[in-house]
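Supplementary material to the annual report.
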Amino acid sequence: MDYFFKILLMMLSAILVNNYVLAKFLGICPFLGVSKKLETATGMGMAVIFVMTLASLITYLVQYFILVPLGLGYMQTIAFILVIAALVQLVEMVIQKSSPALYQGLGVYLPLITTNCAVLGVALINISEKYTLIESVINGFGAAVGFTLAIVLFAGIREKFAVRQIPKPMQGFPLALISASLMSIAFMGFTGLV
Amino acid sequence: MDIVWWSIIALGGIGAAFGFLLAIASKKFAVKKDETVEAVREHLPGANCGGCGLPGCDGFAEALVRGDVKINGCAVLGIPAAGEIAEILGVSAGDLRPKAARIMCLGKEGCTNKFEYSGAKDCRAAMAVAGGFKNCKYACLGLGTCANACKFDAISMDEQGIAAIDLMKCTGCGACVEVCPQGTIAVLDLDIDYYAACRNPEKGKAVTSVCSLGCISCGICAKSCPFGALTMVDNLPVFDYEKCRECGICMEKCPRKTIVRTKTVKRAEIDDGKCTKCGACMEVCPFGAIDVVDGVYTVFDKCRGCGICLEKCASGAITLQKDK
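Predicted assembly:
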């Protein structure tokens, strides 16, 4: 039971307290790039959940069953990027098959999950924190849910901007960055929860 | 050296394993593309304007092949391309007259404001504030919502704050009609000449109190049309473009100048060499624009280019020319 609570707290921490976008500032590119529409933001979030969870699992296996026994710990980064790239390819194929509209909506940002540093970040942090397999997967899943939460909330805010009168110098990215920082401050309120 | 070999083997192995898995996945998740869909899609404009109501041109191509939509569902499609698609599908192309959107409002200085509006630059947002800031419920608010919706850059806002449509760029997709909260835009046939640029269906007094250019439903246009192409429906003139011969008498007679034209004026010219002096043209001309001067049939300035004389002329001596 204790272990169960530990896992639950870990997930909560990854979603709210140590939110990868708003507290660790990883994965800012898709966070700003795909957050103009709620629909594509949700799709992006789902794709990231899939990639991050699976990447956590597979990178753990790669690390402890291939790299460590062979003494190749220094190859971690490139090996993980390889894993993530392959997973993104898979997701791309699945989305193209199952939802052409979402595929079009995500556009270039879908292959860019490969270079989404939040994904690689989760995989590397899992190892450096010496998480077990289950903990890695939970952490990866929590981080991705946190990413989705942040991007969906942010997209909701940005959709509201579309019908507001905004001073010209503030239109677009300036206001997006300011609202992102305000969101980040708001999420600081969760500090101490876990 | 061992460590080099091991790293090559390990990474190569991981890469090969993933490559193999992806190869299987690409077979399993291969998007089966219907060849007919592909062929149809190639002939579609590819602007993904959404005017057909389907998600992009790919969606329209699929719906076409399934038979859910007709080819003329795509307003953007040119006639040659439509013909080719019809050939691929083995169906008839249907009514393919090119269409274009028109702003059914002359607004400008004629239209008065109810109050000063300084909210969001969006007609839909402006409509939410006391039903718009113009006295006329049917007026173009001029905040550019249609211009933003236009995928073909065909709408611009003129200096008086009324939308202006570039007929050369407009494809008649109707995306602007969807977003206009006032219903001020209508999609009409591209090749028509005259239309009444007002949608206010109220009676004269109510219209004059809000606009100096709107249609007051006097019906003079309908009475003056020599071809019976105009009828008054719901206090607005409705054109029957099958009957309209583009003479433009309606525009001239309109006391409010609500009827506008889009094309150049034409006039008839008689080739004296071919003319047999039968007089049929003189009889049929509703404007009395043809008369005999020194034994030569001459067209006077009264000619409005309706072309009805062309049909009556047995010798083919009359042609329509652009007015100089």
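Chain B has a mean pLDDT of 82.
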